[in-house]
Amino acid sequence: MPEAIGSQLFAPCGMNCMVCFAHCSTKKACGGCLGTDESKPGHCRTCLQKNCAAERELSYCYECSDFPCRRIRDLDRSYRKRYGASLIEQSLFVKENGMELFMMRKAD
Known about the structure:
Layout: H1 21-24, H2 42-45, H3 48-55, H4 70-83, H5 87-97, H6 99-107
Helix pairs in contact: 5-6
């Protein structure tokens, strides 16, 4: 059974950090986008989406009135191609159904 995703492993952009190479490919796994920057690779520390949400004092991009912005749409296109999942759809699912149901669904 796959490891359940924790709420700090659901990135502001809607990415499931459990499938991110930075989380999965290192001996000391990244704590996720909402965790501390301590174990994150440099590109994760300077993530435009994460930092944009933080500047707007939001936890998740879907809370923004501009969602989905161009940055999210571009990242969504890449994520769908790479992982077969949509950041926008995942974000809207969490917005409509809550993090707990998303986490339970991803643990199946």
